[in-house]
């Protein structure tokens, strides 16, 4: 269900600006072809970034709400405005992909300044965006560009968390101490040690680094085969339209293959894996194949996945014309 608010009156708009710290507004009209073309993109952003009373996405039909449009000096369609604490902080006129992308990046920084990325599930650690390793200089966390609803995880134990917990913005419960959470905020493999994770993206990405967090519980010599392992051999595949099968993943040539050892894991259980940047340009999806674990056990464990890099143009946007332009042939 969409989280986008349809503005029905000037009073409703004024109240929204008071009740939400950040408000992102799409000013549109039913007759505007570029408005219709970009509407699905706006809806996906709303689903990904909305946070109750903090970040709200709204739409204003300028034909029905002429006073609201006039008060905000709307002269072309579509127009996107970002309000913070009731004041305009950014504005994009027309359906310009580059300008919209820049606005989105600024919005992400605003969201993070509120104490955590939008769309996080809260998890066991509570409060704020957590990463187990520092960001490489000049790059940002772009995990929020993953289309979580279309992501797929194969061969995981259903008694552990599903694919969503891997992208949780909260600190893993295994690092928080205290009582274990009622619902496990990590995943473990099921029938053997292999895992296959498919992640499609909202936009084309340039991937610089992938950060994997794995925090197995301590064990003893008598139960080493029962304690889940950290991943050891990892194969990455780019731009696949869907997940691979296990036999396929074993046979295909990977975009990059990584073999991790104990020294690669930080004190917080995170492996910071630099990628061959030239091979990870203009990426629309990523498959992570955990081929085996580091030990003698039968299961592997993952607590978090973070993607580090740069965002590019949004997919499925096509050519978007400003108001007054003729549609392309």
UniProtKB/TrEMBL annotation:
Residues 116-130 have a biased composition (Gly residues). Residues 1-109 form the Thioredoxin domain. GO terms for molecular function: protein-disulfide reductase activity. The keyword Cytoplasm does not apply. Residues 112-136 are annotated as: Disordered. Transmembrane segments: none annotated. One of its GO terms (cellular component) is cytoplasm. Residues 131-327 form the PITH domain. Keywords: Disulfide bond. The keyword Disulfide bond applies. InterPro entries: Galactose-bd-like_sf, PITH_dom, PITH_dom_sf, Thioredoxin, Thioredoxin-like_sf, Thioredoxin_CS, Thioredoxin_domain. PANTHER family: THIOREDOXIN-LIKE PROTEIN 1 (PTHR46115). Belongs to the thioredoxin family. This is PITH domain-containing protein. It comes from Staphylotrichum tortipilum.
């Amino acid at each position: 269900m969409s989280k986008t608010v349809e503005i029905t009156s000037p009073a409703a708009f004024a109240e929204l600006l008071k009740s939400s710290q950040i408000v992102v507004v799409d000013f549109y009209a039913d007759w505007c072809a570029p408005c219709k073309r970009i509407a699905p993109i706006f809806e996906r952003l709303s689903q990904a970034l909305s946070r109750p009373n903090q970040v709200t996405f709204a739409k204003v039909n300028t034909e029905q709400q002429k006073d609201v449009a006039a008060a905000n000096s709307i002269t072309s369609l579509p127009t996107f405005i970002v309000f913070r604490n009731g004041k305009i902080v950014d504005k994009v006129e027309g359906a310009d992909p580059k300008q919209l992308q820049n606005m989105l990046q600024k919005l992400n920084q605003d969201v993070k300044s509120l104490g955590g990325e939008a769309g996080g599930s809260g998890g066991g650690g509570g409060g704020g965006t957590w990463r187990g390793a520092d960001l490489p200089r000049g790059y940002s966390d772009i995990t929020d560009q993953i289309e979580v609803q279309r992501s797929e995880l194969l061969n995981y134990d259903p008694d552990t968390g599903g694919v969503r917990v891997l992208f949780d913005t909260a600190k893993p419960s295994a690092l928080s101490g205290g009582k274990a959470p009622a619902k496990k905020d990590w995943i473990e493999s099921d029938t053997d040690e292999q895992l296959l994770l498919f992640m499609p993206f909202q936009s084309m990405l340039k991937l610089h680094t992938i950060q994997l967090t794995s925090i197995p519980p301590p064990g003893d010599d008598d139960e080493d085969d029962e304690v889940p392992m950290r991943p050891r051999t990892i194969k990455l595949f780019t731009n696949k339209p869907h997940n691979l099968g296990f036999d396929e993943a074993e046979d295909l040539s990977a975009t990059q293959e990584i073999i991790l050892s104990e020294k690669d894991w930080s004190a917080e259980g995170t492996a910071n894996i630099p990628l061959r940047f030239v091979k990870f340009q203009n990426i629309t999806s990523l498959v992570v194949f955990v081929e085996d674990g580091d030990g003698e056990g039968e299961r592997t464990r993952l607590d978090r996945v973070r993607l580090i890099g740069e965002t590019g143009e949004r997919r499925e946007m096509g050519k978007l014309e400003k108001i007054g332009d003729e549609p392309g042939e």
